[in-house]
Each structure stands twice: as C-alpha cells, then as structure tokens.
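Before relying on records like the one below, remember that each one covers exactly one chain. Contacts with other chains, cofactors or solvent are not represented anywhere in the record.
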Amino acid sequence: MSGQHNNNNNNMNVSADGSCGRCEENMRGPKQSMAEMEQHYEEKIKQARTALDERQKLFNSFKDRMGGDCESMDSSVSETRLETMYAQFYNKWTDKKEAYELIRGMFEASRNDMDKEKQELEKMFKLDEHSTSPPPKEVAVYTTMAVQNLQMAVYHSRKEHVAEVPLQEYQERERVTFPKEFRDLAAECYWLGCLMTLNNPPLHVKW
C-alpha cells in the first residue's frame, strides 16, 4: 500500500516550492485562449477605428465643400449656372403665349415630383419633421449627397426621356396634343425644373 502511495505522489510531480506541474500545464490552455481572444478583439477594434477615421475624413471633406461661401463656378449645376440656363430658356418661350400654361404646368410638375423624391429619402432615413429619434449626422450628409447625385443624373439624362411621363399625363389631363415644338419646350422645362428643385437651396419660378 505504501509503495503504491509513493508512486502516486511521484506522478503528481510536486515541486519543492509546492507547485503542481500538471496544474500549470492545464492552466496554459485557458491562458493561451484568453490571449488569442484579446488579440482578436484588439484587431477588430483597430479595424473599426480605421473605418471610422475614413468616414470622418469623408464627412469633413464634404462639410468643407458644402460650407464654403463661394459656389464652384465650374459646376454644371451650380446656382449661377442654373440661373443662366433659366434665363436662356425664358427667352425661348416668352413670345409663345399659347405655351404659357404648358410651361407653367411642367414647372409645377417638376417641383412636385422632385419634392416627393426628397421627402421619400427623408422618411426612409428618419430625417422628416415627424421623426422622434434623429439619426446620426452622417445620415443627413449622405442623404444630401444622394440628392446631389440625383440632380447630376437628371442633368446627364436626355430631356425628352425625363419629361416623357409627366408630359403625357399633362396632355391626357388637359385633353390636348401639342406640336413637337411645344413638346420640346415642355421637355426642357421639366428637365430644368427638376434641376432647380434639387438645388440646395431649391430654386423656384415665381409666376
């Protein structure tokens, strides 16, 4: 019995200071796992911070572009450019009195349609006045950029394509079919009206 007891003590490998070698070996596993977990999460935090820094840089860059007192004069849809385009368009139709109601109708249609587009974006991202919990400020920034991108998409589109549906609806509602000259005016009017409404701040025609 005593021989077996001594053998068990030897297997336990108790050191002179009273520590257990087998216990130390068993503890290395959890310690190593904890170290690996810490390293994993530190890497995740580092990646998240890097992504956040990139977003902040983009946000600051956008604020700098939007916050200037002077608009970019080379912009295709700058406020100055839109005012010039409207003045040129105004000279095309002012001598055509019979087209007055059509032109007015197209401007009003473009304003209503683009206002709806902007309102849908505001509702989607909880930016409308009825929202109870305002979203992060980046949401407002990117929503503004979305409106600007829509404005550029309209600008690069063919006028007759942009105005096809609203012009058809107007003719059906008024029970009239306009000659090509007037349809071209109406298409340009609706296209320009969309660009003006999507401007920040919006530009509107006073009748």
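The longest helix spans residues 21-67.
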